[in-house]
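target protein:
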Amino acid sequence: MDWSHALRLTASEEILSLAGLVLLLAAAWCGDKASRAISIVAVAVLVGAMALVAPALCGGAMGPGTEVFYGQFRADAFASFAKLLIYGSAALTLVIAPAFFERVRAMRAEFPVLVLLAALGTGMMVSATDFLTLYIGLEMNSLASYVLAAFLRSDDRSAEAGLKYFVLGALASGILLFGISLTYGFTGTTQFDGISAAMSGGLSLGMIVGIVFVLAGIGFKIAAVPFHMWTPDVYEGAPTPVTLFFATAPKVGAMAMLMRVALVAFAGQAGAWQQIVIFVAVASIVIGALGAIGQQNIKRLLAYSSINNVGFILIGLAVATPQGAAAMLTYMAIYVVMTVASFVVVLLLKDAEGNPVEGFADIAGLSRTRPWLAAGMAVVMFSLAGIPPLFGFWGKFVVFQAAVAAGFVPLAAIGIAASVIGAFYYLKVVKVMYFDEPASRVAGTSDFAHRAILVAAGLILSPLGYLLTKWLGGLSATAAAALFPIT
């Protein structure tokens, strides 16, 4: 193996690893007073990692030349696309987190280090072409995430969120590991290409059970029905910047990991897993929408919204075509922007003492007391609902278009019909802000970084976002092509 080539292709992982270790030592030596400086350095490292992976996407890297470490790691255009979203989400988390934690006197120097290590593990997941590499990356992300969920040690909700996430996450990891063991036992390899070759001759009962367990384990990580039970409690209890991180970087990583497993390792037997994915997609869309209707906490509503959006993304996977994969990537990019904007709005909902307000009753009549904030939330809600001309509509459109093109017209029809259910609870938020009597609870000052991010995200989600469709579609198609090599 050419080690210089391998080290060049894994440069982003190397810089994140070294930076994580150095910043961990700095946190131990300098203490919490250096937390803001460590956060700034961590953001710079993440931006540098984005710069390192971007050329692979722009150049359409794919094929054997992108594989290193004896086929266990692939730095292709697909991995680059996912890593840009992951590292960007992690960097935005670190930009908005200090103001939140300093207000509750809980900012610690370890926070940016944990985010950095979680991003490293998530990046390894999307580049993994071997189940062993995949599992190492998954556990690196998970272990850091368990600590992040319980980061507010003085908050009982945060401690509860961390415990629930740890217990259910450990269960999901065990299910995934059991599926990997079965797959290895019946195919004789843990490498995706080898598994695909072994399955091309037909499926045994053991292989089918292995596929089911692998998909079930990954289903927990993407918070898809019926593995979604942890999501509302963890999203509500975890600190809001951590919830933002959970809803973006690890979710994108897990979804990209699922795409590579399904479309590469299990590519020869798509019929064996397509029915599972179709069921999970429809169930996630419907249950995510129905579960959100009765919520009175905004963070819990966004948790069910996340489950709902996972269902729409999985429609692209169910069709198992390059167009479907490209649609998934386009949707995920738009979803990250919508999610960042939604949780920034939640961070801006504070009372006069700076305490967060998260209930529906607290935002009643917000349009009359904080009109610009109400307008920002309205844009986010309409975009999440997929209502044109906002950019969120485009994500749903390309997914349904891919389904129709592949002949999955009933699946697309169900998805479109279920979108109407989802629109109800998004419009409910707008109704409360614009038509109810003012509660005058939201009165806190806003942080500049939060306002800047919300304005930038709002411009992308506005009709101006359609100027990006050709560019985003081209990048998504380039990345998706790496999963379907021409042989």
Q: What stands out?
A: The mean pLDDT is 88.
